[in-house]
Amino acid sequence: MSTSRLHCYQCSQKRDVKCKTVPAGLLRMHFHDSFVRGCDASVLLDWKGKNKAEKDGPPNISLHAFYVIDNAKKALEEQCPGVVSCADILSLAARDAVALSGEPSWEVPKGRKDGRISKAVETRQLPAPTFNFSQLQQSFGQRGLSTHDLVVLSGIKHTHVHLKYISQ
């Protein structure tokens, strides 16, 4: 992504980060997207016919801040049509919103391809809110994620509490 495109994208994000729920919402959306089919933005797709999409799956009905991705995609398409995937936008938006809210940032590889398949039934793969720590470790481990990944993705604001609990 060129500097001018990234700047345009970042400016659109700064306005939306004023809403305190957006950073957490985007991070959660990115996590839910990544956990099901990889970072392919399939969580953004709408359902067609009788096949409900990921966003309609029970764990995802409370996802929000889709408008942030929609606005960023619209702005980018006006400047450089067909260049930046929704998968990259979602990854960058999650990172930038979290960083702009004062939390840690991370590197985001670019060049992801957008998924074309989105099935609500596949959201069963997401860890249930009732999972205990062992179940969460197993669920994350099946996807090649570490305990550290689990702690970080469980919520930036709660990371220090989780780390303290784990270290005891």
UniProtKB/TrEMBL annotation:
Residue intervals of the Plant heme peroxidase family profile domain: 21-159
GO molecular function annotation: heme binding; lactoperoxidase activity; metal ion binding
InterPro entries membership: Haem_peroxidase, Haem_peroxidase_sf, Peroxidase_pln
One Pfam family recorded for the sequence: peroxidase
Reaction(s) catalysed (UniProt annotation): 2 a phenolic donor + H2O2 = 2 a phenolic radical donor + 2 H2O
Site (Transition state stabilizer): 28
Protein keywords: Calcium, Heme, Iron, Metal-binding, Oxidoreductase, Peroxidase
Enzyme Commission numbers on file: 1.11.1.7
Binding-site residues, Ca(2+) 2: 159
Keyword Oxidoreductase tagged: yes
Source taxon at top rank: Eukaryota
GO biological process per UniProt: response to oxidative stress
Residues bound to Ca(2+) 1: 33, 36, 38, 40, 42, 54
Binding site for heme b: 158
Co-factor binding details: Binds 1 heme b (iron(II)-protoporphyrin IX) group per subunit. Binds 2 calcium ions per subunit.
Entry cofactors: heme b; Ca(2+)
Record-stated family: Belongs to the peroxidase family.
Entry protein name: peroxidase
Phylogenetic lineage: Eukaryota, Viridiplantae, Streptophyta, Embryophyta, Tracheophyta
